[in-house]
Each structure stands twice: as C-alpha cells, then as structure tokens.
Amino acid sequence: MATLTLLRRDELLDGTTPRRLTAAVTAGELMRLRVGVYVETAAWNAAKPEARVIARAHALALSSPTQPVVSHETAAAAHGLPLYRADRNRVHIIAPEARPGAAAGVIRHRGDLTDGEVVEIDGLQVTSLTRTVADVARTASFEQAVTVADAALRQQFVTAPDEYDFDGAARFRQEVLVIASRSAHGLTRARRVVEFADGRAQLPGESISRIRLRGIGFRVIELQVAVPGRGIHPYYVDFGLDEANAFGEFDGAIKYVDGKILDGRTSSQVFDEEKQREDWIRGTTQRHYARWGWPHIATAADLRTRLEAFSIRPPR
Known about the structure:
Layout: E1 7-8, H1 9-12, H2 18-26, E2 30-34, E3 37-40, H3 41-46, H4 49-63, E4 69-70, H5 72-78, E5 91-95, E6 106-110, E7 118-121, E8 124-127, H6 129-139, H7 142-157, E9 158-160, E10 163-164, H8 166-180, H9 187-196, H10 204-215, E11 222-227, E12 235-241, E13 246-250, H11 259-262, H12 267-285, E14 288-292, H13 300-308
Parallel strand pairs: 4-8, 5-6, 13-14
Antiparallel strand pairs: 1-3, 2-3, 4-5, 7-8, 9-10, 11-12, 12-13
Helix pairs in contact: 4-5, 5-6, 6-7, 6-8, 6-9, 7-9, 7-10, 8-9, 10-13
C-alpha cells in the first residue's frame, strides 16, 4: 500500500513564506492534518482509506509531546489490515486513566497495556495484532470487526490458496478472547466475531459476503473451494454453497484495474479468462454459479435478490 508523505511546517518554510503556505492551503494544494503537519491534497485524494488513517496517526505522533499508542482500527491499518467503512477523520489511541482528555480528532480509549501488547511499526507505537483484533472485536460493528479479524487470520495463517493453519488460527482466536475478557465491556461481541472469523476470506468483500450469506439463511459456507481445472492446477472458487448446489464469487472491480492483478494483461483479457474459467466450472460441476459485487452486498436482502436471479436459494 502506497504511503502518504507528510510535510512539516518548518520544512515547508525552508522554501516558501508563511503567506504562501497559507495560500497553498486555501487554494486546496495542501491539506493540514494537524497543527504544523500537512499533506499534498492530490496525493490525499488518491490514497486508500487505510493510507489516510495511517497518515493521520503519523501526524498525531509528530505533533504530540509524547508518543501515543494507536489502537483499534487505526492500529489495524498500521498492521496492514483492510478496513470496512473506515473512520478517516479520527485516530484511535489507548492511554492510561490518569492522562488528560484527548485532543481534537482523537478517540481516546482508557485502559492499560501489558508487556508485549505494544509494537513499533514504521515509527508508530501500535497495539499488537492480537490486542488490536480484540479491541476492534469488542467495540466495532460486526461487519468492521469480521473484516479485520478475517484479514489478521489470513495474514498469519494462510500460506497458499489451499494451505490454512487451522491450529494456529485456533490459538490466535483464544489469545484474542483472553485479551477481550480483561475488559468489562464487549466480550460477547468479541466472541461472536472470533467464532465467525475465517482467514480464508481473501478480501473485505468476501468477509461481508459471508455475513450476508449467513444472514439470508445459508449455514454451510465453504471458502476457497478447489475445483479441478484444465491443467494440473485447480481453480479456486470463493464460496461453495452445498445447500443450494452452487458456487458464488465476490467480484471486486479492482481486479480489472489493479496493475498487480493484471500482471501485464489488459482488462479485457482478464475478463475473458474469468469467463472461460467460469464456463469450465459450470460445465464440469453442473452447479449454479453466481457473481456479485459491492452493490449486491449492501444488505442481506440485496444479496438474496442477486442470488435468486441465478436460481440460488438458501435452504428452508
């Protein structure tokens, strides 16, 4: 993920005047993140939400007399985890009870951190991965928390499309729940998130899709199902819905524009390859097959409507 370059006021004033700096902000060329810390507006507008979250955390650290410990979804972004409906304007931190109230643009969480629950990432003091997942699971929405928990499990325990360390994931879940149990609030929410989380979900859209599939009545949802391909390597399908004799895939539009995914191919070539792959899977398995994207998973009802168009229905 590309990072945003922060510009400090004293550095900017080496090559300009205070009046010109103010004019650049007024004209929309520069954006002030915190007092004395700026970023180029064009770069900010082009950045991913997670990059913006991290930039605000660095800006807070640069303008604070003591290093804050960033937490919750801010820490999740720092750990390289994707966010769902990220709070792009505020930084989450954890501070002892005795510290004074938080500054503007900061959500302060009261609490203590044990040894090993703070790590350094690119100069930021950040809650550890297990502590971060526990905090998000306790306090965020189910969709936000599952997205983070899925990604954390994937980051740690998926080494290949067909290799998932179930034992390691189980230990990670237990560690998260132990941490969550130290708080007076949110343990039930955290347990629900942790029990649902699965590192085999590859994208936030797959995490949300799984929630919606459960919401419309599917109870057996297989992830990254291997289907024999044309050569020696199998195809992998996002969702196996045995209850409906169907396969499903979340089709994020990014695969048709992201350079890493395209790997030198044009968007039309990728689309054609996906179509041939889908035809092969349909023909060899005789299963129903549906694709959906972000517009179809806004609610469970939206996904139900999409699936019914392909004669895919949950069990009664």
